[in-house]
Design goal:
The protein is built from 8 helices and 4 strands. The chain has 223 residues and is of the alpha+beta class. The protein folds into 2 domains: 140 residues, no CATH class; 70 residues, 2-Layer Sandwich (Alpha-Beta Plaits), CATH 3.30.70. The protein has a 4-stranded antiparallel beta sheet with strand order 2-3-1-4, with helices on one face. β2 and β3 form a beta hairpin. α2 runs antiparallel to α5 and α5 packs antiparallel against α6. The longest helix is centred in the N-terminal third of the chain and has 25 residues. The protein starts with a helix and ends in a 7-residue tail after the last strand.
Length: 223
């Protein structure tokens, strides 16, 4: 037996195992538990406007499907090559709106890979440590008050008094100001706190104020 035959035999021997029912069930349960933990961290640190339940279900499904794929390709070299060929022609065109969502998707894939490879304890420990570090970073350095857009529509005769209220806000950023036939429409960004809530409530009671709107949104680009 030459060197090439030895290499072939050693490689093929790694893919001649069988998949047991117990291994599949244990891998899926491990992947499911980790994906639930991922979703819990996602909900705790979510700072968007509308929470997407479908994304949470997609993360769970992604982890479970990845587990089954790893279980399959680790048992047979023919199936592994066929699976790689099949996945190479798949195109995912769904746009991910939140950059952080991509990280959680990769986390789910990683959990599925480790669970599918029967690395149950490292998968659980790794998920706990990663979730803990991410949550600590979120609380200490990256958690901010929710951003809101305030849209005011009022008579131009009270423009000076409205500006006095606005300049009293601790943090605000003017977005736009338009005047149409004596009516001013003002839009600015602010962080919602107890102090800003009181000021916005007072603005709504000012005589000459036609309408005041408070809109929640997420500003990821610092515009």
């Amino acid at each position: 037996m030459n060197f090439v035959d030895v290499i072939k035999k050693s490689v093929i021997s790694q893919f001649t195992g069988t998949i047991s029912v117990q291994s599949i069930i244990l891998s899926l349960v491990t992947s499911f538990v980790i994906s639930l933990f991922i979703i819990w961290i996602y909900k705790k640190t979510y700072s968007g406007v509308i929470y997407s339940k479908s994304f949470s279900l997609s993360v769970i499904m992604l982890a479970l499907v990845t587990t089954l794929i790893i279980q399959t390709i680790s048992s047979n070299i023919t199936l592994s090559l066929g699976m790689v060929g099949a996945l190479s022609i798949v195109r995912f065109r769904t746009a991910v709106k939140e950059p952080m969502d991509t990280g959680f998707m990769f986390w789910a894939i990683t959990a599925g890979i480790m669970a599918g490879a029967n690395l149950y304890l490292p998968a659980l420990i790794g998920a706990l440590i990663l979730g803990l570090f991410f949550y600590i970073a979120y609380i200490m350095g990256f958690k901010t008050n929710p951003k809101y857009l305030v849209i005011l529509k009022y008579d131009s005769s009270i423009d000076e008094s409205i500006e006095k209220y606005i300049t009293a806000l601790p943090k605000y950023k003017l977005k736009s100001k338009s005047i149409t036939k004596g009516v001013i429409e003002l839009t600015f960004e602010m962080e919602l706190t107890d102090k800003t809530k009181k000021i916005i409530d007072k603005l709504g009671d000012v005589e000459g104020m036609q309408s005041s709107s408070l809109i929640s949104y997420q500003n990821d680009f610092g515009a």
